[in-house]
Specification:
about 325 residues; alpha/beta; Rossmann fold; Alpha-Beta Plaits; six-stranded mixed β-sheet; four-stranded antiparallel β-sheet; 14 strands; elongated
Amino acid sequence: MHTVPLSLELKNLGKSFSSFRAIDNVNLGVKQGEVFGLLGPNGAGKTTTMRIISCLLKPTEGDVLVNEKSVRDPVKRVEISREIGLLTESPNIYERLTAEQNLVFFARAYGVPEQEIGKRVTKVLQDFDLDSRRMERVGTFSKGMKQKLAIARVLVHSPSILLLDEPTASLDAEAAKEIRSQISDTARTGGHTVLLSTHNLDDASRLCDRVAILSHGKILATGTEEEISSLMKNYSSNRRSNSVQITLLSSQTFSEDSLQGLIKGVEHVSKDSDGKTIELSFGSRYSESEIDLLTAKAIDALVKAGASITSVVQRKPSLEDLYLEIVSRDENSQK
């Protein structure tokens, strides 16, 4: 079986600022070509982790391997910085310069050979739909265009790893959607490994293959949404239950008590005020297949009782549900 190598490996990583513990014994592996999300509230340690990976900060304990090179090795640090494209929360572009001048400047700063600069600048401008604005000063750009240029700047030296810190922060919905699309296209077609730091759970859910949830400098959970959901089932009774919404053709005369007697095996049965929507809530003890079976039995019971059903929609815990449950539990444990 083929094993995908790791682009990033955090090994017992710790970082302290005087008495403040920003990162506490973090272990994490990010595979080549993966889009990986670091999720957590402000102060969780996301930005500090990215700064250590990009060699802007030194770890207090442990190590980070970037394509098997240690950030603690002073000889390798220059190589590592050229293999990484770092987008900080502020765009870090020069508004008095044109889009092209910005990219040429950063290409030279990263040591791109002079004969290759023109070709690379043109490519990233075209990739981000900015080629027609290349000779305009960045100060005239919208927030969304500035963010696209900032990501283009991150890519101009052809790094293998992208570190993106809150890439859609402060953008309107349309601009954020376009930036997400650009990040997704860049990751999937360019073969880049992407580490995305965010507390925008919509970004994480749409873009990331896996996520790690951080709080107080520690990783609380790691995996896909499905893996984290399964982990939560093992030890959480407070998590929002899986639920199924059944919509009826017209308002029915079923009372909630009669529904509870009619539909067996669910934790709770409720209906909305117009009587057309019934919600079945399942406890965390049930597997997916068991929920499917109980839902089928509930539909059968309703039809036999005279209901006309127009739709059945299963709602599973979202990444937001899981995140809020995990972080709130950690906050409570700190009190």
